[in-house]
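It is worth pausing here to work through a concrete case rather than discussing structure prediction in the abstract. The textbook approach is simple: state the sequence, then state the predicted structure, then interpret. We follow exactly that order.
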Amino acid sequence: MFKKILIANRGEIACRVIKTARAMGIKTVAVYSEADADALHVEMADEHVFLGPPPASESYLIADKIIEACKQTGAEAVHPGYGFLSENAKFAQALADNGIAFIGPNIKAIEVMGDKIESKKFANEAKVNTVPGYLGVIETAEEAVKIANDIGYPVMIKASAGGGGKGMRIAWSESEVADGFASSMSEAKSSFGDDRVFIEKFVTQPRHIEIQVLADKKGNAIYVVERECSIQRRNQKVIEEAPSPFLDEETRKAMGEQAVALAKAVNYESAGTVEFIVDKDKNFYFLEMNTRLQVEHPVTELITGIDLVEQMIRVANGEELKIKQSDVEINGWAMESRIYAEDPYRNFLPSTGRLVRYQPPQEGTEKGLTIRNDTGVFEGGEISLFYDPMIAKLCTHGPDRLSAIDHMSKALDSFHIKGIGHNIPFLAAIMEHPRFREGRLTTNFIPEEYPDGFKGVDLADERAVMLAVIAVHMNKLHADRAVQISGQLPNRPRVLPTEWIVSLDEWNQRVSATDVAAGLEVFFLDENGKRLSEHLVRSDWTPGQAVWQGMIDGKEYVVETDRAKQGYLLRYRGATANAVVHTVRGYALAALMPELKVADTSKMLLCPMPGLVKKLHAEVGQEVKAGEALAVVEAMKMENILRAEVDAVVKSIECEEGDSLAVDAVIMEFE
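Step two, the predicted structure:
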């Protein structure tokens, strides 16, 4: 067995590989850029080697630096993780030329299946049904438009190298093909060092279901069931689960056997994933093969008990698979939520900055329910604009699908992040969505259910009552603490009011609260002080804790909390409420306060996220039309085209190409 391996990656996947290597007694080497000098994967590894500046093209994507790091540390093998150089045949060849093992498939398999264009050609020759499209390299936008017109809209523009949604665009018209082609090439070049793209028909109403395969160097190959990855936004997977709620055993077997046949045809070895598009009638079509470990591999591990990273290492070491197809069993159900540094209330724009608070739910298994959190960050760390915006992969496992979903909802409510925007409210909302809970999924789920973006979840009356009761409980504890402050005048001791008014945004309720042996009794009152209802609260929460957990009327609740300027910020199942507990007099005075006026920015183009100005398409004095591209801002390897909302004349330009801008920085001003 290898004594030392190098992980040619960063973030959560580097940490994930280190954990398995450590369990196997293998020493690890981390590599890092300037932006990752204090990263978690660097701290976890036994050794670390500096690569260079923050851009991946100057650090993580330079094969020679990785090889030199292996020689410097004596690493015998390299695990590439996913992204970066994981599907780069030239990198694998360079490792082989230097006597370093590649923890992944052979070079031929990478060349044939890791390249999206070549893989489709090979699949066609192998009589595997594929999605219609043009498999050649496309040189110009004009050629791309002609091809798209021939195929018929909508079409998908995809990077030939890499994956993860980078370099991918859906185009519904000629103009969108022209814009999307340029952006796809640029993103592909930035992310993978390869700007080739191809075009295929975009199948509407599909499910995205993939088959995990494992193969060794002896010709043995098995499929390790499937993962449902249909919940996607902008072609980026958001929530994955295993198994799929759609497949029956017959279809699962047919897809699995086809995936294994494809793997054997290229003498595949290591872990890999064959992705399929599946229609409503369970017809499936080969999409691509990822010759690497997938981001969503934990859900497969949770339902099978197979450590895929361990198997990759053992296969690379020349060992024969000890797992046979008959050994693979489905045990329960697993969910994965990708937690990203992005603001769901601002069209999911990237968010960068420092993690002022980072408190994930506790990992482990209790009462048959499991929480697993794969992450590469820590409290006080920084989310950089140079890399993928993933913060963590939160996974849950239960005996069935609904128990896994419910446990995920609780885990998301227990996850406290402060300092940057994040998508936890959106993920929690999906877990509560009736269509998701029923398993009626397609890759169009998000655009269909959230056509205008995510605006939050409206508070139902029952949940408003629950959050109001929690706010009263929290306020009572803070108030009890306040009256015990030393230094008060002995003849004027502070006395707590007997009644309060709770405000949840526009929702208001008069209450009183009384300590009893069993906890805190909260009474809802009418305007005359008559009791309308009563609720018993039991909780060990203390001021300062980020998560409130307790019982209300015998039912358990978990709510994320934070102090706001005038009260509390409460988040539960995708709904966020500002809760303020006033005295009766304070409530009356608050109603007299004037409303703050919001600055008029209607004549400005603001930077919607922290990012790098890649291109300015307008000049001072230029007349621009609604929909016209004004600027391109790159953030976390994704290019964002900013367009004019109305016809206007450019009055001034407040930045230059190459500038790094903060969120809401002024890019242009209009007359």
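Step three, interpretation. DSSP finds 17 helices and 40 strands in the chain. The mean pLDDT is 92.
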